[in-house]
Design brief:
InterPro entries: PRib_PP_synth_CS, Pribosyltran_N, PRTase-like, PRTase_dom, Rib-P_diPkinase, Rib-P_diPkinase_bac. This protein is α/β, with parallel strands linked by helices. It has 2 domains: 144 residues, Rossmann fold; 137 residues, 3-Layer(aba) Sandwich (Rossmann fold), CATH 3.40.50.2020. It is built from 9 helices and 14 strands.
């Protein structure tokens, strides 16, 4: 890859490994940045090199200590902006607060925190956002700056074809109605059937009753979703699929958050494998759960950065994995 002039890539502390992989892929060094905390837990960021007139990309995922990492990102954007960077792009593989994207109940007093995060990013000085598999693609409309919402789908299709021998006889399953669009798109491109599970919730993070719509008997079932947090839904769904006659159950998730009892639940569930991307670091999770496998998406983000920097179209990445 030819040397790219006036581009700088910085990594926040949420996922340094991914930042390094992106920089390596682009043949660049990560920019020098020191992030530290004062004893009162205030975040302090020092950008260790000149960014004047540069095209700056800051990689920070919404995971781990979410609020600290979000604050660190805002401060890094602002630090680059007031140090005269010509353009600052926030590369946020997993967008924080994306689930708080609407008011659920009529007249509820629920906040729309995803919009608040969008405002904070804009006010801090971001000129452009690159993210992946937003929980709801309408979140792009919360911004008045360009947002590139990349898809893990091409990488997922590639993984299915390379790792599931009987993929031609599988059913792609959405664990809830919200993911129907994502699942039908994958099923169409593999030319296989899809099914969905309708769930009724009484309160957040707890599932009540599940109804399977579609046929999985004597087939491999592949659950696909954008994120798994406590994993209650997908583990329930896996049980439902096995009782409906599925021969094997895989789960493929873009963002493996795996908080609370998630790992215990996965270990006890009947998955062949739970496949996640590395939008969130998974090293620790993999130590505690042998079923977790990781698809590396650093090349998708790196290619998006390269194309954005060179003023090329990014839409190629919606249907292809860069080689």
């Amino acid at each position: 890859m030819s040397k790219m002039p006036n581009i700088k890539i910085f990594s926040g502390s949420s996922h340094p490994d991914l930042g390094q992989k992106i920089a390596d892929r682009l043949g660049l060094e990560l920019g020098k940045v020191v992030t530290k905390k004062f004893s009162n837990q205030e975040t302090c960021v020092e950008i260790g090199e000149s960014v004047r007139g540069e095209d700056v990309y800051i990689v920070q995922s919404g995971c781990g200590e979410i609020n600290d990492n979000l604050m660190e990102l805002l401060i890094m954007i602002n630090a680059c902006k007031i140090a005269s960077a010509s353009r600052v792009t926030a590369v946020i593989p997993c967008f924080p607060y994306a689930r708080q994207d609407k008011k659920d109940k009529v007249g509820s007093r629920a906040p729309i925190s995803a919009k608040l995060v969008a405002n904070m990013l804009s006010v801090s000085g971001a000129n452009h956002i690159i993210t992946m598999d937003l929980h709801a693609s309408q979140i792009q409309g919360f911004f008045d700056i360009p947002v590139d919402n990349l898809y893990a789908e091409p990488a997922v299709l590639k993984w299915i074809k390379e790792n599931i021998n009987e993929w031609k006889n599988c059913t792609i399953v959405s664990p809830d109605a919200g993911g129907a669009k994502r699942v039908t798109s994958i099923a169409d491109r593999l030319n296989v059937d899809f099914a969905l599970i309708h769930k009724e919730r009484k309160k957040a993070n707890e599932v009540d009753r599940m109804v399977l719509v579609g046929d999985v008997k004597d087939r491999v079932a592949i659950l696909v979703d954008d994120m798994a947090d406590t994993c209650g839904t997908i583990c329930h769904a896996a049980d439902k699929l096995v009782s409906a006659g599925a021969t094997k159950v895989f789960a493929i998730l873009t963002h493996g958050i795996f908080s609370g009892p998630a790992i215990t639940r996965i270990n006890n569930a009947c998955f062949e494998a739970v496949v996640v991307t590395n939008t969130i670091p998974q090293e620790d999770m993999m130590k505690h759960c042998s079923k977790i496998q990781v698809i590396d998406i650093s090349m998708i983000l790196a290619e998006a950065i390269r194309r954005t920097h060179n003023g090329e179209s990014v839409s190629y990445l919606f249907s292809h994995v860069p080689l």
